Amino acid sequence: MSEETVSITIDGVEIEATPGQTILQAADAAGIYIPRLCAHPELEAFGACRVCTVKVNGRPQAACTTPVAKGMMVENDTSELLEYRRSLIEMLFVEGNHFCMFCERSGNCELQALAYRFGITAPRHDYQYPVRTLDGSHPEVFIDRNRCILCGRCVRASRDVDGKHVFDFVGRGHEKRIWIDAEARLADTPLKGEDRAVSVCPVGAILRKGTAYRDPIGRRAYDHRPIGSDIEACRPAEKKG
Amino acid sequence: MSDLERGVREICRSFRGDRTRMMDIVQAVQARYGCVSSEALNVIAAETDTHRVEVEGIVSFYTFLSAQPKGRVVIRLCDDIVDEMCGMRPVAQAFSEALGIPFGGTTPDGAITLEYTACIGLSDQAPAAIINDVPVTYLSSDKAREIVAELRRHGDPRRLVHRLGDGNNAHPLVRSMVHNSIRRKGPVVFAPFENGAALRKAMAMSPAEVIRDIKTSRLRGRGGAGFPTGMKWEFVRAAEGEPKYVICNADEGEPGTFKDRVILTEYADLVFEGMTIAGYAMGAAEGILYLRGEYAYLRVFLEHLLAERRRQGLLGKSVLGRAGFDFDIRIQMGAGAYVCGEETSLISSCEGRRGDPKNRPPFPAQRGYLDRPTAVNNVETFCCVARILDQGPGWFAQIGSRASTGTKLFSVSGDCASPGVYEYPFGVTLREVLTEVGAEAPAAVQIGGPSGQMVGPADFDRTICFDDLATGGSMIVFGPDRDPVYIAKRFLEFFAHESCGYCTPCRVGTWLMKKKLDALLEGRGEAADLPYLEDLGRTIKFTSRCGLGQTAPNPVLSTLKNFRTAYEKRAPARTDGHRAAFDLQAATAEARALIGETTAIY
Description:
- The complex is a heterodimer.
- By secondary structure, chain A is an alpha+beta fold.
- Chain A has helices at about 25-30, 80-95, 110-115, 155-160, 195-200, 230; strands spanning about 5-10, 15, 55, 60, 75, 135, 140-145, 165-170, 175-180, 205-210.
- Among the domains of chain A are: about 5-75, Roll (Ubiquitin-like (UB roll)); about 120-210, Alpha-Beta Plaits, CATH 3.30.70.
- Chain A is built from six helices and ten strands; from the N terminus they run E-E-H-E-E-E-H-H-E-E-H-E-E-H-E-H.
């Protein structure tokens, strides 16, 4: 190990991390999967979905925003944390209107994939059935706010990767919505179909037109292996146990 | 160029197009044009080099800002639980009937808008409202009708003030009907002082010695969390980055709290003196008083006090003639967002953003306002600072208890004879306070506001201090006829409304909790609801991103613990398989209406 690393412990396994890394990044590099929704490797940490909540030296912290420090004791895969995460994922399902059976993102949706990984068949919370708006004005992209989980990936990608600031949040509390840099129509923004802001959406809230159901069942991202398997596949064999 | 465009541009330019002054810009636009319209959003974005959607995000975040036109006069009736207990409902009805509009509406002539608002810091003289910036207190149905008639006559809320309150409420720059209701004075906050005396003593020492004195006094923050003030200042002083900032959190918004209103009315100089001492100790050149929008009526008066202090050499260039120590204070107005009392949200708001809390680390002491080291302290904490420097840390430390030194102000309201502000040494028992405030038959006390806990008679002999019953100061007394479930529901309604919506557990969880309490109160409760509420509460507390979410479930969790029978009555166990929570008629009503089916389904 390089002299510049610090060691932290995740669920009893000691791993080496680089100062400046977050717990999530260090875990990813070590092949340990911490479930997440708003975090994205190309984007600034956000800390909104809270699905990556871990215990750091006994205290709850979001793994995506907490930098590593020498000797940190991190709990990740415990029944207590899994229960909290399951509840949070269920909250996102009941907050919006998520109809997996006819959603174009089905099979490629990170929210749906997490629900499968957690074995969620029906949420414990009551469905809220909110009335949300759609915007189909743009020739290449449409927004369906029914499926938005307010993860802010599009906000960050548009601002920091595309250099545009097409998206941001308006409203507060359960009235909070993703909104666009125009009076009403997505068509009136400089958004392009190939923008990163479009492709980073983890759910079916921002979709590229003309691509629906392009991947047949069986070839979708999460048809064969649960979400997080790619990270877990990187786990060095000697580190196991 | 339209008049609006010219006017908005002028406002933006008066703040040099500085996007960090966005709060001032949008509030000035709102004050001049009654709203921040779509056209205004475009002009502001262009003038401040931001995007329209960012400005829209800010305007839509704060309750007192609006993109839609409102009346020239906006009546905001406080709808918190204490106001309701004091007769707010009939007052609301009287306003609505006299104006001929529902809440949320504006009269057809565009003259008057009627709205509800969260606690406005007048629970001691409830029911109360703010009309534009003018507080009106002790409302009744008759008074509501008179107010409407008067407003129809002259349209000027300031002329509604016929009798002035006591103390500085009667000052020509305040002219308010608000009363201080100081019921008990103590030696720390509510005591006479001489402007500049504490500052002179501080500046006779080195900054490090000032911080040492604060540490010796064992002063802990008065906002509720109780972080040691001296330690915070030491972090800021040692942090890299210039300039450093001192912020005074005057955004008290916890339902039932109003002590800072009284401090700022009568003892503002003590606060400013404490802030200046903080500036000296930490090497800061600028202080910000973040004043909640509800206290806008105090702004001109506070500006006047600041100008006086500059004239006396207590603020500005070379404070007290000391070359190299420049320190000034500006007032930043809030605009109706409880979450901005959370220190990192408050900093976001000062920076001209949505009042979202920030990720920690980094902590404000390392990277706060404009990414510079920042100390945020409560109004009352700064009073303690000034008094410690004046009277000495030993004097302060012998008041109160070992781990909780000094005094604490309590804002007492609810079912008691003498609501008002009381200054007690830490360590007083709840029972002593209840006796003095004239609570005849207290059945429950919400201590520390809704984010604190609701306790019953079994806890009345406990002491109020950081180690036992901790409190930011709000104390609401409930008599035997009040329903703990209903009270908890009203508090959750408040939190759900005030959640910034950034993180999942607080945004969704508080709303779900509120809906479940609605179901219990509407007779649709089930036995399984109680463990469900406990689980949900634990999840919200554990996973929320800031103090709002981490404490929002407390009213429910503490009433479930201390007043469980009230819940059990509403959540009966059943063996017949009937699900009270499911209302078949309601669930099918829309579908039946669509197909024109009028018979009920059984």
